[in-house]
């Protein structure tokens, strides 16, 4: 049985390294081990003991400042004043669920839907992306009458029982018989016949054929539209044939936008929109509330109405007053400050800078990005493209020492995952490049 998780264990503290820690941090690690469940993980070889954050920076218990280039929750900055004020104001006025008439949830739903294609015209609110994906799978299975689901090989879609069954990167054992994982559309390692998009679509079609042979009717193709856990594959025009293949098999298409959504990928606003496609269901979470738990599932009436007519749904906090106030403030910040355009500008600067680094560091095999979402694949040599997992571990830990927080992703934990916030300035981006350069230099010397 698999006892590790590529998404959780790729950048985790090991208990046998506790003797290297500062006494204050060591004591907290030991206390934590005595009271928290053993499934939890800590980041980095020497975990961070954080005490506060503001804007793009976080601060540890020793007074050290770090540039946050990883956090996918505080997308409009830690402690964003507009979000804090909105939550505080709503908390003092009313905090209750959506079974009472309230203007806030309807106003926000209308504004959220206006950012999406017209066909996606209904929204249901949840607490987390896990719950949103759970609900999406329930809807897909009810609508199609099937149970078969196709996902990508390192996908992570959440922690509920239903969703963990379709999250290979966090699975504790083999996938269920009605779930098949396929390789993502990876232009860097593509060696199949035809284009990357055609090859991915062929894998989707073949997977649904295998499910049918096992006796499982198609229910859903569930994908993260930037393939963030698979290694970050944002290349455009890779999804349309796959969507068509899934629908030809009778499946509903679900786009998991928890990672790329809300302008992380730039002016497209949603990851799937970069491909010129429209899913049947879209799920979202994390950055939606900038630290307040709020998430949503959006679907077309055609997809959702049969489920809604037969299955009542209620979520105490999903769609309640305070989370909706936070979500509304986040959307105001993104739209009002044109943070989608800022993501394009900052992303272009960072991509140019990291591409320049690749001319000096031959371990950088590929640089992939959309907006301010980056995957930098590290290899032992560029000819054979052998993953440089150990080197990647050195880079993220040296980056931590340099005051830059990033992580890794992919099946071999050899791709740097870099996710600056939407509020990054040019100075922040310059600092990121400087600290990443120093981390790569130190790693190269150590190897």
UniProtKB/TrEMBL annotation:
Record-linked PROSITE patterns: AA_TRANSFER_CLASS_3 (PS00600)
UniProtKB keywords: Pyridoxal phosphate
Top-level lineage group: Bacteria
CDD domains from the UniProt entry: OAT_like (cd00610)
Entry-linked Pfam families: Aminotran_3
Record's keyword annotation contains S-adenosyl-L-methionine: no
Positions of transmembrane segments: none
Sequence similarity: Belongs to the class-III pyridoxal-phosphate-dependent aminotransferase family.
Protein name as annotated: 4-aminobutyrate aminotransferase-like enzyme
Biological source species: Microbacterium trichothecenolyticum
């Amino acid at each position: 049985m698999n006892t590790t998780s590529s998404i959780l264990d790729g950048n985790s503290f090991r208990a046998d390294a506790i003797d290297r820690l500062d006494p204050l941090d060591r004591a907290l690690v030991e206390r934590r081990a005595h009271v928290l469940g053993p499934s939890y993980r800590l980041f980095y070889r020497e975990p961070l003991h954080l005490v506060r954050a503001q804007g793009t920076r976080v601060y540890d218990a020793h007074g050290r400042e770090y540039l946050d280039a990883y956090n996918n929750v505080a997308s409009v900055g830690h402690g964003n004043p507009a979000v804090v004020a909105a939550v505080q104001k709503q908390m003092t006025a009313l905090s209750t669920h959506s079974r009472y008439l309230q203007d806030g949830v309807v106003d926000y739903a209308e504004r959220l839907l206006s950012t999406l294609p017209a066909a996606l015209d209904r929204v249901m609110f949840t607490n987390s992306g896990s719950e949103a994906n759970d609900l999406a799978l329930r809807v897909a299975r009810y609508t199609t009458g099937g149970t078969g689901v196709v996902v990508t090989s390192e996908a992570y879609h959440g922690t509920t029982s239903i969703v963990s069954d379709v999250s290979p990167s966090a699975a504790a054992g083999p996938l269920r018989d009605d779930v098949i994982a396929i390789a993502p559309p990876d232009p860097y390692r593509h060696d199949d016949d035809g284009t990357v998009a055609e090859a991915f679509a062929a894998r989707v079609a073949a997977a649904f054929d295998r499910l049918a042979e096992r006796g499982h009717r198609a229910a859903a193709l569930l994908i993260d539209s930037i393939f963030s856990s698979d290694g970050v594959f944002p290349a455009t025009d890779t999804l349309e044939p796959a969507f068509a293949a899934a629908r030809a098999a009778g499946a509903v298409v679900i786009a998991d936008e928890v990672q790329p959504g809300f302008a992380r990928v730039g002016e497209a606003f949603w990851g799937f929109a970069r491909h010129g496609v429209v899913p049947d269901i879209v799920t979202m979470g994390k950055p939606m509330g900038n630290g307040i738990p709020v998430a949503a599932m959006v679907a077309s009436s055609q997809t959702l109405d049969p489920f809604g007519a037969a299955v009542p749904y209620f979520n105490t906090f999903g769609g309640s007053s305070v989370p909706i106030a936070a979500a509304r403030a986040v959307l105001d910040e993104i739209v009002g400050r044109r943070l989608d355009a800022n993501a394009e500008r900052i992303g272009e600067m960072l991509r140019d800078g990291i591409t320049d680094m690749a001319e000096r560091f031959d371990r950088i095999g590929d640089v992939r990005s959309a907006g301010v979402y980056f995957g930098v694949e590290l290899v032992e040599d560029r000819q054979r493209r052998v993953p440089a997992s150990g080197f990647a571990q050195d880079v993220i830990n040296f980056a931590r020492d340099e005051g830059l927080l990033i992580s890794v992703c992919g099946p071999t934990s050899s791709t740097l995952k870099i996710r600056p916030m939407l509020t990054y300035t040019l100075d922040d981006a310059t600092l990121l490049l400087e600290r990443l350069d120093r981390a790569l230099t130190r790693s190269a010397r150590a190897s």
